[in-house]
Amino acid sequence: MASDSTPPANAVNTAIDSVSVLSEDSRRRMFVFIRRAGRAVTRDEAAASVGISRKLAAFHLDKLVDAGLLRARYETPGGIRKVGRRPKVYEPTDAQISVSIPERRHELLADLLLDAVLTEGADENAAQAAVRAAERRGRRMGEAARDETRPGRLGPERGLTVCERLLDEYGYEPVRQAPTELRLRNCPFHPLTAKAPDLVCGMNHAFLAGYVNGLEVNGVRAVLAPEPGECCVRLGPSDTDRDDGGGPLARR
Predict the structure, then answer these.
(1) What is the DSSP string of 29-97?
(2) Residues 233 and 174 sit within 8 Å (Cβ to Cβ)
């Protein structure tokens, strides 16, 4: 998972680009060969593994490097090379490819649950610890974002604009329903939400409420307002308990 202060930017686009790079057969086979080699591989070895020329292999390998799937360096395999230029070798990076449309953030949920297990107090149960961990994580992320951007006093409209960055990067698909209200079209924790709605929605609510509080957005709060096929939380004015249609918003 990315650090609290720097959520992953354009993660889905990056993953899609990586998948696109691997769509070419020779390129994909060389990538698999290098991952399984357990050592740095030369261009000649990569070319021989798929039966293409060294020049064509170099083209494909550089594409894999540009996509962040391989790293390249110069090395002398098997000892000291007395004559000529050291060969360029390739090895896999730690990049992991995961594409989900709409976007899912199950790793965030798992990380929050792990925090809850490791910090559960004697005076709380597992669900309470999970909600506490989620609120704390969101608040710390909001505080870090505020320290980084130094936005000054944030009223509802500008505050929601700042919130949209995190919400978009974590797959919530925010839509400005009104100048002071954000509707979240996607639940990043689906379909796990359906298995334990009280727990997951409670954690999601606490996470987003913590973020708003850490960012110090005035006049906005996170409320539970479940809609079919959407996130269960909405960000709206703190001075009203009613939605656009006049009906009461669901509460925790």
Answers:
(1) HHHHHHHHHSS-EEHHHHHHHHT--HHHHHHHHHHHHHTTSEEEEE--TTS---SSPPPEEEEE-S---
(2) no
**pLDDT tens digit sequence for 55-64:** 999 999 999 9
Beta-strand runs (E) in the chain: 41-42, 70-74, 88-92, 174-178, 181-184, 220-224, 233-237
129 neighbors 191 (Cβ within 8 angstroms): no
**Which regions of 75-171 does DSSP assign to beta strands (E)?**
88-92
Letter for the amino acid at 234? R
How far, in Å, CA of 31 to CA of 176, rounded?
A: 42
pLDDT in tens, 219-230: 999 999 988 888
End-to-end CA gap in the chain:
28
Q: What percent of the chain is predicted at pLDDT more than 70?
A: 80
The pair phi, psi for residue 52, each rounded to 5°, is -125, 170
How many CB atoms within 10 Å of residue 211?
25
Separation between Cα atoms, residue 115 and residue 242, nearest integer Å: 34
Structure tokens of 132?
A: 């506490």
Q: Name the pLDDT band for 83 (thresholds 50, 70, 90).
A: low
Is the distance from CB of 204 to CB of 105 less than 8 angstroms? no
Per-residue pLDDT reduced to its tens digit, 29-52: 998 899 888 889 999 999 999 999
Of 106 and 6, the one with more pLDDT: 106
DSSP 247: P
